[in-house]
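TL;DR need structure tokens for one chain.
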Amino acid sequence: MLAQTPMRFFDPRSDAAPLFAEADLKPRFFAHLLGTLAPAWDITADPSSLRVPLLIAHGRHDYTVPYALWEGVVPTLPDATLHLCEQSGHQPFFEEPERFASVVTDWMSRQR
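>> reply
TL;DR here they are.
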């Protein structure tokens, strides 16, 4: 995970070690999640089953899961909003906490 820091943060020199200091990593779990479950997952398979609004807050500088992967997907979802965080990578809630909180609370205030 730490070796991927330059791909996951707006500032490639970020020190991600404190974020994972207390983590209890489960390699077998992640291998199953990312190797078995995730490849077959398709959020557009049954969009009518999505009964709640979705906020997708994504970092422009996330090179592990690029925001471009959402192109063409968001319009197919019944009530989805994509917000691109300009100064973030994979963790906009960490890199831009005030902006992220503002985006979430503004989005929530517009929901029915």
